[in-house]
Amino acid sequence: MRDETRAREADACDRYVYDKYAYEPFAVTVDLAVLTLRAGALHVLLVERGQQPYAGRWALPGGFLLPEESAEAAARRELAEETGLADVGGLHLEQLRTYSEPGRDPRMRVVSVAFTALLPDPPEPTAGSDAARARWTPYDEAGPLAFDHGLILADARDRIAAKLEYTCLATACCPPEFTLGELRQVYEAVWGTPLDRPNFRRKVLATPGFVEPVPGAARLTGGRGKPAALYRAGPAGAPHPPLLRPSPEGRLA
Amino acid sequence: MRDETRAREADACDRYVYDKYAYEPFAVTVDLAVLTLRAGALHVLLVERGQQPYAGRWALPGGFLLPEESAEAAARRELAEETGLADVGGLHLEQLRTYSEPGRDPRMRVVSVAFTALLPDPPEPTAGSDAARARWTPYDEAGPLAFDHGLILADARDRIAAKLEYTCLATACCPPEFTLGELRQVYEAVWGTPLDRPNFRRKVLATPGFVEPVPGAARLTGGRGKPAALYRAGPAGAPHPPLLRPSPEGRLA
DNA sequence: CCAAAAGTGTTATAAGTACACCCATGA
DNA sequence: TCATGGGTGTACTTATAACACTTTTGG
Which helix (H) or strand (E) segment is A74 a member of? Predict the structure, then answer.
C-alpha cells in the first residue's frame, strides 16, 4: 500500500507506470476446474493441499504464471502436468473469469484467472512433482474446497451447462467414437435432468455437422440392450436452434 | 524473471509463495468497454492517450487496482470517474475476460481484467482529472485503438449481443421510461440487423416481468408517427424462451 | 422369458416468421 | 396529403414435448 495517490494519477491517460516496483506486487495465478464424465456422473479433478493455509483440504489444481507466459498458456501447462496427458493442445479450455477479492488468499494479494476444461476418458491423475495427491472426485462429493475454489467450481459447472445449450461442446467429453446414449449422458449429468431419448436423438441428428456416423460400427452402451451406432464429432460449432434445458429455472439472470 | 524453478516447485500443493518480491511483478489493471446508444447507433466511451506508447491514439478507459480493491470495485470506480455519474452502484457491469498476453504492453507485464457496461442516456464524459480527452465514439468509427483494446471492444460487443438473447439486459440501455421502439433499437443496433416490429412487440410483452406499462403515458419516438406507450423495466432477469437473433450466423463456436 | 437400451413414428401444442392492415401524429 | 412510427390481426411454417411402439441384445 505504498502510493495510492500515484496509482490514481497515473490512470487512464498515462495508464501504466514505469517504476515496476512502486506498488505492492500482485501475484497472478491460474486455477483449473477440470471436469469429466465417469460412469455417467460428473467428476472434477482435485489436488490435496500439503501446507497451510487449508492444509489437508482439497483444491483445484493451478499455479503461477511464468514471466513470459499468458494465462491460457499457463492453464494448458498446468493441465498437462496434472493430468499427464500427452497432447493437451487440441483440448477445449475456456477462460471462466478472474477472481480478485482482496482477502481470497490470507497470505498475500493473489489474482487468479480461472479456466474450465471438459475431458474425455479421464486418465488417472499423475500426482506428479507438484501435487501431493490428485484424484477425480464426483462433483456432488467435492466437499468444502480451499480458498474460493468452491465458488470457482460452481461457476465452471454453470458455464459448461450453459455452453451445452448453444454449442456442440458435449462431444469434447466423449471418446473419439461414441454412441448417442453416451452423448446424452453428458447432457444429463451436467444439467442434472433426464432427457427424452427419441427427441434428443432427432435433435442431434438434425443439426448438420454435430455428429458424423461411423459406418457399420456399433457398441453396447451399458452392457445391455441393442448395440448402438457409433458417431464421431462433426465440424459444427453450434446447433441452430439451440438445445435448451427443459426447466425454465437455472437460467442466468 | 528471477526464479522460474521456484515458481514451479511452489505449485499446486504449496501454491502461493511467501516471498512477495521473489518474482518479476505483474501489474493488474481493469479496462472498461462502456457502451451506449445515441441516436439509434451503438457508441463506446474512449479516452485519448497523452503519452507513449500509443500517444494520441484512443483507448478504453481503465486503470490500476488499488491494493485493497477487487477488480469489480476498481471497474466501478473507474466507471464513476470517467462518466461522472453520481450513482454507479446499480449499473450493469460485467466481467468480460482477462487479457494476459506477455507483449500486450511494451513497457512491462500488465494483466488486465476487462469489463463491459451498458448505459442509458449517456452524460457527456467528464474528461476529469484522469483523461486528457474523453468522448463517445460510434462503434463503427472507433479506429485502431491502443494496446489490444480493439480486441477487447469486439469481445464486449459479442458478449452484449449474446446476452441480449437470453437476458433482459436491453432495458439497462434505455431511460427509466421508454417506448418499445426505443427498446427495439437497442437490439437492432447491437445485433446490426432489423427486427420485425410486430413480432418484437409481442415477444417482449409476452415475457412476464420484462417490461411494465406506465399507465396513460405516451411519447413520440422519432418526432414522427403515432405516440407510443411508455414502459418501465420489469423485474424479470431472463425471457423464456430466449429472443434469438435472426441469422444463424454470428453465433459463437 | 424379461429387462434394458436403441431406434422409429405420431400427434398436439407452442413458438417463430412474414406479412397485410389500420391508427395517430407532424410537416 | 404524405411519410413515419405505433399497434393489431392472421396464416404459414417450424420446433418442442410427450408418448406408443418395434428391435436387438444379455441374462
Answer: helix A71-83
Q: Is the CB of A244 less than 7 A from some atom of nucleic acid strand D?
A: yes
Q: How far apart are the C-alpha atoms of B139 and B213, rounded to whole Å?
A: 31
Burial class (CB in 10 A: 0-12, 13-18, 19+), B219: middle
Mutate to test the interface with A, among B24, B46, B60, B100 (most CBs of A within 10 A): B100
Say which CATH topology domain B4-163 has: Nucleoside Triphosphate Pyrophosphohydrolase (3.90.79)
Identify which of A185, A223, A183, A222 has the alpha carbon closest to the alpha carbon of residue A205: A183
Residues 98-137 of B with CB under 8 A from A: 98, 100-102, 105, 107-111, 113, 129-132
Task: Report how far apart, in Å, the C-alpha atoms of B214 and of each of A48, A130, B90 are.
Answer: 57, 61, 22
d(C-alpha B125, C-alpha B122), whole Å: 8
Cα–Cα distance between B129 and A29 in angstroms, integer?
A: 33
The CATH architecture one would assign to domain B167-233 is Orthogonal Bundle (1.10)
Task: Return the SS3 of A75.
Answer: helix
Task: For A7-44, write each residue's pLDDT tens digit.
Answer: 444 443 445 444 555 566 799 999 999 999 999 999 99
Q: Is A131 left (phi over 0), alpha (psi -120 to 50) or beta?
A: beta
The answer to whether residue A94 neighbours chain B at the CB level (below 8 Å) is no
Contact list in A for residue B68 (CB cut-off 8 A) is: 1, 102
A223 touches strand D (CB under 7 A): yes
From its phi and psi, is residue A88 left (phi > 0), alpha (psi between -120 and 50) or beta? alpha
CB contact under 8 A, A48 and B108: no
**Could you count the other beta carbons within 10 Å of the beta carbon of residue A101?**
18
Q: Which residue is nearest to nucleotide D26 (CA to C1')?
A: A224
* Per-residue pLDDT reduced to its tens digit, A131-174: 568 899 999 999 899 999 999 999 999 999 999 999 999 999 99
Residue listed under C-alpha cell 454470428: B250
Intrachain domains B4-163 and B167-233 with the same fold: no
Helix/strand number for chain B, H first, E second: 5, 9
Q: The whole model's pTM is what?
A: 0.89
Rounded Cα gap, residues A3 and B126, in angstroms: 25
Q: How confident is the model at residue B24 (pLDDT cuts 50, 70, 90)?
A: low
Q: Which residues of B228-246 are buried (b: 16+ CB within 10 A; e: fewer)?
A: bebbebbebebbeebbebe
Domain ranges of chain A: 4-163, 167-233
- Per the CB < 8 A criterion, the answer to whether B149 and B189 are in contact is no
| Contact state of A62 with B15 under an 8 Å Cβ cutoff | yes
Please indicate if any CB of chain B lies within 8 Å of the CB of A91.
Answer: no
